[in-house]
Each structure stands twice: as C-alpha cells, then as structure tokens.
C-alpha cells in the first residue's frame, strides 16, 4: 500500500495565520483589532461546503445560494474585501453595529471587534441564508449575535441608533432609515453602485446628510427587495451592450447601432491616462448623459469598438451619437495618453465634452482618493448640481480635491 504524504496539508489554524499575514501584505488588514478578529474567527466553519484552502484564500468567494438562472444571490464575501470594509468602519469596543446582508462570518468578526460590551445585529432578506448564518454562528459560539429576517431597506429600528452600519450587498441608493438609524456621529460603510461601478464607501453622518471618509472598489451581489437597482440595459447588436442607471439618459438602440456603423471620430487629449477607476468616477459623474458601454472580445477584435469597452467604459450618449474613452501608448516617453472615439451626427460635440473632462481630470485631480462623495437626501434640486446623480431618496454628488 502506498503511504499518503500529508506533510503539505495545512491545518485551518496555519491557513488562518497565513491569511492574516497576506491580508496585511495586501493592504486588507491595517490595524491590530481587525488582525485579531481575523486571527480568532474560524472562518472555515462558516463555509463547511468549501475546502479550508478556499475558505482562507484572500480573494475567493464561497457561493451560498444561487437564483434560478445560476447567478449568485448570496456568497461569503472574500476575506480581503471584508477586511477592507472592517478597516473602513473603524469599529471600537462597545459599539452597536448593524450588518445588512448576512453570512455569519462577517458578523462574527464584528462581534470580535465590539467585544462583550457591544452588540451586533445582522439582517437578511432571504430565509435560507439567514437560517444558515444563524446555524453557523451558534455552532461556532457567537450566540449573542442577533439575526433578523427582513428587507434591510427599512433598517432594523428596534436596535437603532447604531454606531456603525455595514451593508454587504451592492446598494443603488441610501434609504432614509440608514441615515436616521445612525448615531449623530455614526458611520455607514456601503457598497454603492454609481453608473455600473461599485465602491465600498465609508460615509460619516453629518446631520441628515452623509459625507465620505474613504472609498475602495468592491464587488457585491445586488441588493434585492424595495431598494433594488433601477437599471436599463439595451443590446445595440450581438456583443455590444449599453447600461445606465440614470433615468435622464436616452437609450435608442437602433439609432446608436446605426451610428456605430457610420464614420468614427478619433480625438486625442494630450493628457495622461492612468488610475482608470478614479478617472471613471470623475467621468461618470460629470458626463451630461452617462451610460456604460460593454463590448465582447469578438467585437473588439473586429475593430468596431476599442478594448476599453471589454470591461465596460463610461460612454456619453445622445439620441443618435455616442462617445467613449480609449488610450494609446506615449511614443518614447512611456505611459499612456487618453483619447475619445465618437460616432454619429453629434460626434464632434460629444468628443469635445468628453475630451475636456479627460484633460480636467489629468490636470487637476489625477490621484487616488481625490474625490469626496456626499449623499444628500430629499427631492433632487432643479437644475441638478454639477457632478450629481439622482436616486429615489436623494442625490449622490462629488467634489474633487
Ligand atoms: C454578499 S452576501 C453577504 C455576505 C456576508 N455579510 C458575509 O458574512 O460574508 C449578500 C447578502 O445580502 C442579502 N440581501 C440582498 N438584498 C437584501 C436586502 N434588501 N435586505 C437584507 N439582505 C439583503 C442577500 O440575501 C445575501 O445573503
């Protein structure tokens, strides 16, 4: 009989220690309390159907529940993203914390951070997910965490006000209950989707408004229930899709598809291109009629649409014309220059507006974290302020340093 060499099989404790080291190295864990929480909670026991290696890997999600089309409706978020959000939340012992979207493990981290004097409530809209989270929490010994079955849109008023609210599904808006559910100096960490890109934003309460303290790119399953996103999506042709979550944007697929077949205007900005996520935040909030253009690899290979659209690119959309950004290498000097491709009868005007924004960003705001985001509740003012996007319960707006 051949002996099995198990010298490379690592114990969950060893995998956990490796994970914490790697989380520090990759700028996930920054502070000792968060490191201690990740070192203590036996993460693999909240993912009993996954291997410990997957449970403790930094960037793997663990699927929990899928819908009838096979899309994830609940997952255990990646360790890295959880660490980033817990650092953004800046949780102290004794705090009362609400988590919207349950899985168990993040609530256990929260309980470690608030300690025995604090309180953690976690709410989920899905009965199966919540029951699973409750089972895991009890099995591992986090019996004090409160679990609530409800649509998180309305918060959990019984436990309010909370020092911290952590939302763990991609939100499209910030309902009034989340702001009023915070203490006066409370903080909400929420993955907010603006024009197709989700960022985990730490917002501090400022009266009845919110002002951002930090933001990081994030990926989340979408919010369900009353707060679900209001998004329109049209296919211009096989492999070319436009999406927008702004009701003011016209989406006329036939005219835009015809524009793509027409002549193509190429305009170079003379400005540097880098930090695409920061650039895209500036663009999507400042373009007068923004959408996100996606193109499949075959379409890009055919030369019809630039490679910038492979993962979605901010587009400026008119009734019959469209413009989006691209880039080219700077000859000799290294780096890239940004530019615009435009199609349709209004191509010149759209390219002018787009190029002007590319230059403004590169000259004035080209660095990480330059934006401050605000959420202002209430009806959207007319005219809408610069760099603002209307939502059901208020507006998201930004300024750049
Ligand atoms: C990424 S999972 C949560 C991960 C979890 N926090 C963890 O510990 O890994 C997102 C969860 O949000 C829940 N969800 C979606 N919409 C919701 C809503 N309106 N109210 C409460 N929960 C919601 C989903 O059912 C899903 O379980």
UniProtKB/TrEMBL annotation:
E.C. number(s) listed in UniProt: 2.1.1.77
Primary localisation category: cytoplasm
Biological process terms in GO annotation: methylation
Cellular localisation: Cytoplasm
Keywords linked to the UniProt accession: Cytoplasm, Methyltransferase, S-adenosyl-L-methionine, Transferase
Enzyme class name: transferase
CC terms in the record's Gene Ontology section: cytoplasm
Pfam families: PCMT
InterPro entries, per database record: Methyltran_FxLD, PCMT, SAM-dependent_MTases_sf
PROSITE patterns: PCMT
GO MF annotations, alphabetized: protein-L-isoaspartate (D-aspartate) O-methyltransferase activity
NCBIfam families hit by this protein: methyltran_FxLD
Family: Belongs to the methyltransferase superfamily. L-isoaspartyl/D-aspartyl protein methyltransferase family.
Protein name according to UniProt: Protein-L-isoaspartate O-methyltransferase
Species of origin: Streptomyces marincola
């Amino acid at each position: 009989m051949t002996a099995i060499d198990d010298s490379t099989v690592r114990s969950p404790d060893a995998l956990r220690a490796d994970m914490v080291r790697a989380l520090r190295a990759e700028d996930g864990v920054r502070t000792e309390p968060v490191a201690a929480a990740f070192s203590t909670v036996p993460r693999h026991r909240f993912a009993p159907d996954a291997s410990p290696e997957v449970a403790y890997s930094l960037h793997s999600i663990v699927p929990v529940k899928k819908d009838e089309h096979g899309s994830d409706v609940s997952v255990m978020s990646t360790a890295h993203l959880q660490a980033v959000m817990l650092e953004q939340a800046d949780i102290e012992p004794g705090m009362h914390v609400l988590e919207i979207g349950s899985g168990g493990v993040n609530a256990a981290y929260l309980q470690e951070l608030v300690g025995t004097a604090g309180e953690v409530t976690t709410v989920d809209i899905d009965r199966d997910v919540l029951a699973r989270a409750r089972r895991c929490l009890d099995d591992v010994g986090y019996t004090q965490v409160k679990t609530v079955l409800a649509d998180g849109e309305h918060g959990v008023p019984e436990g309010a006000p909370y020092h911290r609210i952590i939302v763990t599904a991609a939100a499209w808006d910030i309902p009034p209950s989340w702001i009023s559910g915070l203490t006066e100096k409370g903080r909400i960490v929420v993955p907010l989707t603006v024009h197709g890109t989700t960022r985990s934003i730490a917002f501090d309460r400022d009266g009845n408004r919110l002002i951002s303290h930090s933001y990081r790119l994030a990926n989340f399953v979408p919010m369900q229930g009353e707060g679900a996103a209001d998004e329109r999506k049209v296919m211009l042709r096989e492999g070319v899709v436009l999406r927008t979550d702004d009701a003011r944007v016209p989406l006329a697929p036939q005219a835009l598809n015809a524009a793509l077949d027409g002549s193509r205007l190429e305009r170079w900005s003379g400005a540097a291109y880098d930090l695409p996520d920061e650039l895209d935040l500036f663009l999507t909030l400042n373009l007068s009629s923004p959408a996100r253009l996606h193109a499949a690899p075959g379409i890009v290979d055919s030369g019809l649409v630039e490679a910038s659209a492979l993962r979605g690119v901010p587009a400026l959309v008119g009734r019959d014309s469209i413009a989006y950004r691209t880039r080219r290498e700077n000859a000799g000097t290294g780096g890239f220059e940004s530019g615009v491709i435009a199609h349709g009868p209004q191509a010149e005007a759209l390219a002018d507006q787009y190029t002007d924004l590319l230059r403004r960003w590169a000259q004035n705001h080209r660095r990480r974290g330059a934006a401050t985001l605000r959420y202002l509740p209430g009806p959207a003012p007319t005219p809408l302020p610069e760099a603002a996007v209307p939502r059901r319960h208020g507006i998201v707006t930004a300024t750049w340093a």
